[in-house]
Amino acid sequence: MIAARAYKDRRVAVYGLGASGLAVARALVEGGAQVTVWDDGETQRANAEVAGLSISDPCDRGLDGYAALILAPGIPLTHPEPHQVVRLAQSAGVPVLGDVELFQHEVRALNPKAKIVAITGTNGKSTTTALIGHMVAANGRRAEVGGNIGKAVFDLDPPRSDTVYVVEVSSYQIDLAPTLRPDVGVLLNISPDHIDRHGSLEHYAAVKARLFRFQEPTDVAIIGIDDALTSEICSAVCGKGTVALVPVSTDKSLSRGVCVLDGVLYDSGSGKTDRVGDLKNLKTLAGLHNWQNAAAAYAAGRSLGFPADRILHSFRSFPGLAHRMEIVADSSGVLFVNDSKATNAEAAGKALGAYDSIYWIAGGVPKEGGINSLSPLFPRIEKAYLIGEATEAFGASLEGQVQYVAADTLDAAVAAAVRDAMSASRDGRRGVVLLSPACASFDQFKNFEVRGDAFREMVHAALKAIGNGGEAA
Predict the structure, then answer these.
(1) What angle do CA 145, 150, 151 make, to 5 degrees?
(2) Of all helices (H) and strands (E), which one includes residue 167?
(3) Of the four listed, 287, 371, 464, 467, which is most buried by Cβ atoms within 10 Å?
(4) How open is the CA angle 422-427-433, to the nearest 5 degrees?
C-alpha cells in the first residue's frame, strides 16, 4: 500500500467505493487526511464501514471546507451530465480528482527514480499492460502492475529505485488526472467507445491525447498510428517537439519508430532499420492486434533501456491474459483458445483473423448488428457451434457459408467441437477450438469470466475423457 500524504490534516471526500475508491480512501487515511466516503450501494458502504471509514453523503451536506473530491472513474464527470456531487464540488471550488492523479504525485515524492508507464487505447490495453509488466520483471526490474487492470494503484507496493509502475488507464481515469505525466505513455488505438460518457468521438480522442500533455523531453510518447485519430494525435505531439516520440504501426514501414510487417518486428529508432525478430510463432500474441500490442510493449522496453533480444525473449514466455485469446490446452495438433472476453463482433473478429481451420463456439446474448460484419472471415471457419439466445440469428448469418450446429449450451458445444477438431487432427489437419462468442454471457452465465472458466474446465474434462490431457495453460 502507498500512503497518500498530499492532504495531511485536510478534509477529503471520496465518492464511489469500488476497489479503487476503497484503496484511495485507505491511503488518504494512512497519509493523515480527514476522510469521509460515500457510495450509493449498501454493500459498498458496508465494506467501507468494516474498513473503519467515516461514511457521509456529500450530496446531503455539501463540500464547503473540503480540499478535494476524489471521484471514482465510473461516476460521470462531464457527460451525459456532471453528477450532482461534481456540481457541488465545482460550486464550492473543490478540485475533482481521481486516484491516478494522487498516485503519480506520491510516487514522484517518495522516489523520483521509479518509473511510471501508462497505457491507454480503446482496445488492447490490458494485454499490453500485462505484457509490459511481464517484460519488466523478466528484465530484472521490479514490476508493479495495476490501475484499470488488477490492483488499484494505491494497493501497489511503495516505490524503490528499480520500480516500474505499469498502469492501465481508461479515458475516465485520464479525465480525472489533470496533470498526468507518465515517464512512458502508450496510446494504442482509438475507435468509437464510451461516447455516452464523453459526448463525441472527438472529445473521447482529446481525453486520450491528454496522456502526453505534460510530458517533458526526458519522457517518451509511444503512439499507434494505424487509425486516423491516433495518427492525428501523433502528428500533434510531433509538432510540439517536447517529448521523445515513437510511432508504432502494423501496416506500414516506418523510417522512425517500431513496426510489424508480415509478423516481423522492426525497430527504426537508431537511425537505421533493424530486424528484431519474428512474432508469428508467439502463441499468446497471435494476430495483427496482438502484434500491435507487442510492438508498443517493445517500444516501451527499449525506452526503459532493455536490450532488444531480452525483450523478445520475454515475449516468448508471456502467458497471456485469462479470457483474451487464452490458450487453455494444446493437444494432438489442436489448440484450445478461450476468448470469452470477446462480447461483440469486432472483438471476435480479431480472434477469427488470427487463426485458420477454426471450430468456432459463438453465441449468448447478441449485440446490435450481429455477426454479419464477420463474413470476410467465414472461410477460416471449419464449423460453428451456436449457443444461447443468438443461435437463430447467428445461424441465419452463417447459412450457406459456414457449416453450423445449434448446440444450445456451452457444454454441448465444447463436446462437439472437441470431437470434430480431434477427428480432423487425426487426418493431419491442425485446428483451433475457439470460444469467441461475439455476445454477452448473461443468458447462461453471470459474466464473461465465469463463461471462460467454464470453457476451460470443459476442455480439460473432455481431453481427460479421451485420454489426452495435452499441454494445459
Answers:
(1) 75
(2) strand 163-168
(3) 371
(4) 30
The mean per-residue pLDDT over the stretch 377-389 comes to: 97
Task: Name which residue leads in pLDDT, 242 or 233.
Answer: 233
Cβ atoms of residues 187 and 211 within 8 Å: yes
User: What mean pLDDT, rounded, does the chain reach?
Assistant: 94
Query: What would the grid cell of residue 83 be?
Result: 453528477
**CB-CB contact of 388 with 365 (8 Å):** yes
Average pLDDT over residues 50-61: 93
Work out the pLDDT band at 351, boundaries 50, 70, 90: very high
H-type helices in 9-117, by residue range? 19-30, 42-50, 58-61, 84-92, 99-110
Domains and CATH numbers, the chain: 11-97 (3.40.50.720), 100-316 (3.40.1190.10), 326-466 (3.90.190.20)
Whether 359 contacts 416, CB under 8 Å: no
Provide the pLDDT for residue 469.
55
Mean pLDDT of 101-108: 98
Query: Which pLDDT belongs to residue 472?
Result: 43
Q: Cell numbers of 266, please?
A: 522492426
* Cell numbers describing residue 18: 469500488
Q: Is the pLDDT of residue 199 over 60?
A: yes
Nearest to 139 by CA among 317, 353, 278, 18: 317
Furthest C-alpha separation in the chain: 75
* DSSP-derived 3-state class of residue 35: strand
* Secondary structure letter of residue 324 according to DSSP: B
**Which cell is 380 given?**
477460416
Task: For residues 282-297, give the mean pLDDT.
Answer: 95
Q: Quick check: pTM over 0.85?
A: yes
Nearest to 124 by CA among 356, 364, 294, 282: 294
Q: What is the mean pLDDT of residues 121-130?
A: 94
Strand partners, 100: none
Residue 319 phi/psi, 5-degree rounding, is: -80, -10
Rounded CA separation 457/439 (Å):
20
Whole-angstrom distance, CA of residue 142 vs CA of residue 132: 12
Cα separation of 384 and 416, whole Å? 10
Whole-number Å distance between alpha carbons of 42 and 33: 24
Closest by Cα among 290, 257, 289 to 276: 257
Tally the residues of the chain. 473
- Angle, helices 228-240 vs 201-209, to 10°: value is 40
Residue 421 confidence (pLDDT) above 60: yes
Terminal Cα distance for the chain, rounded: 31
